[in-house]
Amino acid sequence: MKKSFVSIAISIMLCLIFAGCLPMMAFRSNAVEASQSASASYSAKDTSNNMSFNELDSIQVKLNSIGYYGFLRSTYTDPRDIDWNEVFYVGAGFNQGRLPENVEKAYLAVVKNDEVYLDLTSVSGKDVEDYVKKTTGFTYSEMRRPLKWVYLKDYDLYIHEHGDTNQCRVQVDAGHHESGEYTISYKNDLNESYYVTFYDEGDSYRFISNVLQTNTPNSSNTVIANNSSKSNGMMIPDSDTRKLSEDDLTGFSAAELRIARNEIYARHGRKFVDKELQAHFNTMDWYTPTIEAKDFDEGVLSEIEKHNLGVISKYEKKIGK
Questions:
Q1: Domain of residue 272, residue span
Q2: Are strands 171-178 and 150-152 parallel, antiparallel or unpaired?
Q3: 3-class DSSP state for residue 193?
Q4: pLDDT of residue 276
Q5: What is the side-by-side order of every strand in the sheet holding 157-162?
Q6: Distance CA 26, CA 33 (A)
Q7: How far apart are CA 213 and CA 195, in angstroms?
Q8: Which residues contact 20 (CB under 8 A, 6 or more apart)?
Q9: Nearest-angstrom CA–CA distance, 252 and 198
Q10: Are 74 and 211 in contact (CB under 8 A)?
């Protein structure tokens, strides 16, 4: 009798375990099928390179700008899965000034601290909603990875305290453009290869997806890399050969504009009194410091370079107001 009871109990337990495993097995199967379906759908795209060196350089500059680099910090095949904590980490280009005292006190009350210990990044709720709509075509309420910041309803303000930056730079390899849609191949700071797809809507990119490349280098649907060598590390690689306009500078931070302006001098071997600028350009392979700042002759600058210095300087003052 005892043996019979044990056998029945074991049988019941096995049935329960097997029944519980079925939903999990079904879930794993569905997840794998969904992933394979997304990869198959993406690899069906024509990603052969059909873009010029200058076009790719222009896109690289924009993707590295403070307004766009965050869209490359998460992986997604649906823009509703963009991680907005990455996009807005340092403000996405929205002005960052010292918060009014009453707002700072309201923030400290929520986080239960006596003072602010690190940097604060803040973006208004309206700016968040407008930027999400502009860069994805969806509303913020449709996002599946929204901000995890403190939200002060009375001030309609999202606030994030942090002591670092998530900003990184990418190197564009090649790209395919068709009917307003761009698929760009790039490498991130970890040397990982990705495809980012977006529409250029004139005043903004509308992002579609950002996926890790899994194709073999010789597969028929892999981007064929542009053989031209890049001007490594430059903010605006062609500022010595092409006249810039304010549209070319949209999305750059004040710090990035300062570097872009001084790149024009750095190409001619000018040294810099400012230690931070000098340290920055010392890391560039193309930079050869040969002329002391006090000895530099502005007469070596071309008309295009002088024009661009003026455009960048004017825009710096404009966004600094």
A1: 246-320
A2: unpaired
A3: strand
A4: 84
A5: 119-124, 157-162, 150-152
A6: 10
A7: 6
A8: none
A9: 19
A10: no
Residue 304 domain-assigned (yes or no): yes
What is the C-alpha separation between 175 and 153, in angstroms, rounded? 42
Quick check: is 179 in a domain? Answer: no
Digit-coded pLDDT (tens) for 63-102: 999 999 999 999 999 999 999 999 999 999 998 888 999 9
Q: What is the pLDDT of residue 99?
A: 92
309 is a domain residue: yes
SS3 content of the chain, % helix, strand, coil (to 5): 45, 15, 40
Among 133, 162, 191, the domain boundary falls at: 162
At residue 230, the pLDDT reads 35
Does the model's pTM come out above 0.85?
no
Residue with tokens 């400012």: 274
Which pLDDT tens digit goes with each residue over 183-214? 999 999 888 899 999 999 888 999 999 999 87
Please report the pLDDT score of residue 91 as a whole number. Answer: 93
Split into its structural domains, the chain has a count of 2
pLDDT, one tens digit per residue, over 116-141 is 888 899 999 999 999 999 999 999 99
Q: Which residue among 117, 142, 162 closes a domain?
A: 162
Q: Is residue 25 in some structural domain? A: no
User: Please, what is the Cα angle at 190 between 188 and 191, to 5 degrees?
Assistant: 65
102: exposed, middle or buried (C-beta count within 10 Å: 0-12, 13-18, 19+)?
Answer: exposed
The domain that holds 275 is classified in CATH as: 1.20.58.1690
